[in-house]
Design a protein that fits this description.
Layout: H1 2-12, H2 29-46, H3 48-53, H4 57-66, H5 72-80, H6 89-111, E1 118-121, E2 133-141, E3 148-156, E4 163-170, E5 173-174, H7 175-190, H8 192-202
Antiparallel strand pairs: 1-2, 2-3, 3-4, 4-5
Helix pairs in contact: 1-6, 4-6, 5-6, 5-7, 6-8, 7-8
Length: about 200
């Protein structure tokens, strides 16, 4: 699981500041992935000295550079699965907030283990004019280790018309699907309110 989280977050970093240069309705999911990925890893590299002294800086980087490009609300709703319709508006809002904080903590922790691994981006491909979803492949190359393939699941936001990531599949394992199985079991046993409280406490 630790290895999986590391791979997930290394690649999640690719989705960071898409709102700087490529965050326009015309930007394709491929452009968002490549441009933002290059920026995130460059920023981490430039702040290595500060990060060693102040590790909490990584959370700020994640908040500022990564989260705007993650459709965490949509991901949270998918993770709730069958429990979504049974939940109240207030319960859903609290779960989304807790999940967002959990993701920030997880991403920040794993990104501290980034050490200039090479990232290869899938070439631009044509999408249907009204496409609302897309899959973008990325390959992680680390000297002396097998290449790792990651597929980002992207969706186009109805309001902003910008592409955001809501899931990633690392070597065949979906982050959303694995979390959905974990949380659905816990919610069935403990209830949504209790699970949300536990999630929020972990995210601190």
């Amino acid at each position: 699981m630790k290895k999986f989280l590391l791979l997930v977050v290394l690649l999640t970093g690719i989705l960071q500041n898409s709102y700087a240069e490529v965050a326009t309705p015309a930007a394709s999911p491929y452009q968002v992935i490549e441009v933002t990925g290059n920026k995130l890893f460059a920023k981490i590299a430039d702040n290595q000295s500060a990060l060693k002294k102040f590790p909490e800086l990584m959370r700020e980087i994640v908040e500022e550079e990564l989260m705007p490009s993650i459709d965490y609300k949509y991901a949270a709703f998918k993770i709730l699965g069958k429990h979504l319709r049974k939940s109240s508006k207030e319960q859903r809002a609290k779960f989304v907030t807790a999940m967002r904080s959990y993701l920030v903590r997880t991403y920040a922790g794993a990104l501290t283990q980034y050490h200039n691994q090479k990232v290869l981006f899938e070439p631009e491909a044509k999408l249907k004019p009204k496409a609302k979803s897309a899959s973008v492949d990325v390959k992680i190359v680390d000297t002396g280790k097998p290449d790792i393939k990651i597929t980002f699941q992207m969706r186009k936001d109805k309001k902003s018309q910008q592409w955001k990531a809501y899931d990633m599949i690392v070597e065949g394992i979906s982050l959303v699907s694995s979390k959905q199985a974990e949380f659905n079991r816990k919610i069935s046993e403990l209830g949504l309110d209790q699970v949300t409280l536990e999630l929020a406490s972990i995210a601190k």
